[in-house]
């Protein structure tokens, strides 16, 4: 049985889910944001099923985002499992944090973000305030059998996060999917730094689409999602999400009718109000569309003598 715990968050997305699964081990998939209200909701939820935080033997993270990883250190008898990328955040790896700022600074300059707006780079790390602070005990990788849960395997489903895993049970046709596919909203393939500077910027929109398409190849009947109710019409919802995203990209393509533009210019046009509040998120969305259109060879990119990237129709 997979039991859903619904947990409040301070974020626009609303509640987040955690899933309690009793196998050979008692595991909690995801751990809410690091707020007192969330911890209260976790305790209340566990109690309803006859457990306390001390009974949890494994905490398994779908990804590192604060609404999912907050209380990963709140279970005194649990071992913590997840993708290696979680550790960069869970340990506040100083080299990674330094690289993180440098990564966004370089990307935002390329995207044509004006000098006076670059101050947000330092604030982007605030997400860590709602994350747990402890390293993983065990790393999970693509294809691993999930410890304590015979029949479940680990899928690496990057895109929404560079730490994103899903858990698949081919006999039950069930997936614990984190934020891969959500009932009510499309999931945002956030631009995130690679694990270290030797790696190129991950093209998160392309990763995300590939992760969704991968589910189309599997007979998934039910996805237990990070937000909202489980998804049952899985393949149909995926087709809808992919179609909508294509339409959004084509709208951006039309905006290039009048010549080349930077990601920042397009973002201001696409999100005239939201870009001021949510610059990081909105730039990320636009850059995703650029990666998508480049991948289809519909647009090309040039770099000017200031290092700013401009995109135009091919
Ligand atoms: Zn989430």
From TrEMBL:
Tell me the InterPro entries matching this sequence: Metallo-B-lactamas, NDM-1-like, RibonucZ/Hydroxyglut_hydro
What domain of life does the UniProt record list for this protein's source?
Bacteria
What Pfam families does the annotation carry? Lactamase_B (PF00753)
User: For the Metallo-beta-lactamase domain, which residue ranges apply?
Assistant: 15-227
Protein name from the UniProt record: MBL fold metallo-hydrolase
Q: Which organism was this protein described from? A: Sporosarcina gallistercoris
């Amino acid at each position: 049985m997979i039991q859903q715990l619904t947990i409040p968050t301070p974020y626009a997305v609303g509640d987040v889910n955690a899933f309690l699964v009793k196998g050979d081990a008692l595991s909690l998939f995801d751990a809410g944001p690091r707020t007192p209200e969330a911890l209260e909701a976790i305790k209340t939820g566990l109690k309803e099923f006859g457990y306390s935080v001390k009974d949890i033997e494994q905490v398994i993270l779908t990804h590192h985002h604060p609404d999912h990883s907050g209380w990963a250190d709140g279970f005194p008898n649990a071992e913590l499992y997840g993708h290696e990328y979680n550790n960069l955040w869970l340990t506040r790896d100083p080299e990674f944090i330094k690289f993180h700022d440098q990564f966004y600074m370089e990307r935002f300059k390329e995207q044509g973000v004006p000098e006076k707006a670059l101050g947000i780079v330092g604030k982007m790390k605030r997400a860590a305030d709602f994350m747990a602070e402890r390293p993983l005990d065990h790393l999970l990788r693509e294809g691993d059998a999930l410890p304590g849960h015979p029949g479940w395997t680990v899928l690496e489903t990057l895109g929404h996060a560079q730490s994103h895993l899903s858990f698949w049970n081919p006999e039950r046709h069930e997936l614990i999917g984190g934020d891969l596919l959500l009932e009510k909203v499309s999931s945002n393939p956030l631009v995130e730094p690679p694990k270290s500077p030797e790696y190129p910027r991950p093209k998160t929109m392309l990763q995300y689409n590939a992760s969704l398409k991968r589910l189309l190849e599997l007979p998934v009947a039910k996805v237990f999602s990070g937000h909202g109710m489980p998804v049952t019409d899985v393949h149909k919802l995926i087709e809808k999400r992919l179609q909508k995203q294509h339409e959004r990209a084509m709208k951006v393509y039309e905006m290039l009718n009048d010549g080349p533009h930077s990601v920042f210019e397009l973002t201001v046009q696409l999100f005239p109000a939201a870009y001021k509040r949510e610059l990081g998120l909105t730039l990320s969305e636009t850059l995703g569309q650029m990666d998508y259109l480049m991948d289809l060879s519909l647009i090309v990119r040039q770099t000017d003598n200031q290092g700013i990237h401009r995109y135009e129709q091919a």
